[in-house]
Amino acid sequence: ESILKEYKRTNTQLGLTIYQKLITQVANAIAHLHTNHIIYLDLKSENILVWNMPQPRLPSNGQVLVKLSDFSISRVLSPIGTKGFAGTEGYIAPEIVRFTGDELYTEKADIFSFSMLMYECLSLNHPFSRNKRDHARELILHGWRPSLTEQELSSPTLILDLMVACWSEHPNDRPSAKDIHQLSSSLEFRHLMDVIEIGSREEFNDSNTLATVSYREINDNYENDNNDDDDDDIGIPTADCWFVRQSKQNEQSSIVIVAYDQFNAVNQQIINLGNCEIRCIYYHQRDHVILLADNHNLISIYCTRTFQKLNH
């Protein structure tokens, strides 16, 4: 915990590579315990021994080595679960808090604590310290979870999605430690910034997906469909992703244009192309146009600034 305090003192976030290595190693340790039918019960930064980790704002080789410590309240897990109240305020799973440990719970209680460790390493704050930490137990029982700043919400989507899955209210909705280790070990864990759905597989053909990206200049005009004055938190797009959709039911095609502000989708619109099959899409950056070639040997040109069709 002391090194996390040092990061906080210097106003320095953990780098994503450091974060990933830390999370992966802890997940691997928890998975090992669970494989051997042991529930840890007190997962938090204070119980993680840091053997090697880069100091904030100092050159380093990026090496990270952490280990779990303090197994004093760990329990052997029977096939039906275990009982007993244990853990640290703010990290204890709701199924333990709700019945003060008098009802059976499983190793998924550790997974809830893991989510709070993820939050702690991401925000450099104890869970619920931005609320009233003394009431963390009541907040957890009422379904509240720690708050995230705008900067923290811009973290890679797999980090956020995993954290949310781990702090699910129902134990069965939480992933296993083995699943966490597998996901956190992937390259996408620290790189994938956003995922959107542009159509269901049942409705659209995804076997030959075409897409391209057009980039906006600073002085490009941008019209948002939502004109509310209090919508200032919506960013100005810096790029547009153009996706071709081909219907499975007929030969109807369409273009889905998703506007991005850095790594976050902020707007989406659809252009229907009619009865055709798009074979090729090309972005001509100098002229700010998108060219679409279809199965009728026709080329359609769209302006990337106005999204209007220029000719056919």
TrEMBL record:
Coiled coil: none annotated. InterPro entries: Kinase-like_dom_sf, Prot_kinase_dom, Ser/Thr_kinase_AS, Ser_Thr_protein_kinase. One of its GO terms (biological process) is signal transduction. Residues 1-187 form the Protein kinase domain. GO terms for cellular component: cytoplasm. SUPFAM superfamilies: Protein kinase-like (PK-like). Signal peptide: none annotated. GO terms for molecular function: ATP binding; protein kinase activity. PANTHER family: SERINE-THREONINE PROTEIN KINASE, SERINE_THREONINE-PROTEIN KINASE WNK4. This is Protein kinase domain-containing protein. It comes from Adineta steineri.
